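step: validate -> pass
step: tokenize input -> pass
step: predict -> running
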Amino acid sequence: MRRHATELRSDDVIEVMYRSGAIGQSARPRWIRGIITYCEAGTWPLARLADGQLTEIRPYMKWKLVAKSRDLPPAT
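step: predict -> pass
step: emit ->
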């Protein structure tokens, strides 16, 4: 089942696929974990990735849902 970025909510945990590799070499896929920090109607969800960068989750990006915010245990 394909998910759409419009289904994401704040505090959902995702992984975004990036390709990395040197110029002239084949790119390797790499999954980077992130947390959705901002969602509002009419905008792309904004995620803070594990490496610290912020990125918008766009339709062309490959990503997978790791955990819905409502499924996570409450913070202590």
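step: describe -> DSSP finds no helices and five strands in the chain.
step: cleanup -> pass
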